[in-house]
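[User] Could I get a sequence and structure tokens?

[Assistant]
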Amino acid sequence: MKVSHGVVLLGCAALVASFWLKPSVAGNAETDRQSDTLADAIGYPRQADAAGFARAALATPLGRSNGFGVLEITDLPHDDPRDPMARLVWRIHHEAPDTDWNVGSATFDACYRVEFDYYGTSSRPSRITCPANAAAVTPPPLPRRDISPGFAPALEAVLWRLPATASPQEVRAALTSGMPALPVDPETHLAGVPPEVFVQVHGSDVGVALFARTGVEDTDCMMGRRVGGKVRVWSLSARDQRMELPCSAEAALAAP
């Protein structure tokens, strides 16, 4: 079959035109790498919701840079730990260096969508077309829930000042008046959340446990006791908590 050169040239021109006119999604190997690294970094420790993943992203070096912004923070309905529970869309502004002589503009905004399940990323970051005129959003801050180191000397002082025999109600009242005020986070300007207080009294012996849930899986625990007229205050280490040692007033009394 004979094909004229004019038809061939016309077909080639149409192919080239369709290639150049087809919209492309901005991004390159560097923004792909940055997004993959960021997704892995914020996938653990586990977060309770999409806002938690966004806070974690904004706390990274990339998240704190001027060219980064979170554009979407969405909680997803889920029934199983492997189901996607949160979706983020973020934007990375890539500036061309002065020495970049590549063809075309190397300054662009690259946007990525990524989803997370209970265990981390449920899908790798994928390039998407940046939403038009999308403004960066900031998740609301959370108050701190950890137990301040200043609680240890205060708890020790409270235990020393207790009368020889004290009811659980008297111990709680002494803790309320004797523990320091919760610090205000200088970044969020929010006061910390007080820990849960557990008290156990056996005769003249007193056990106290202060418990705080600082994350989905992370906890903080401080214990104190007065046994046989002697006072001791200590905190459970991260290793102790991973071993699931109990944070309770009873455990404080029974500790060696």
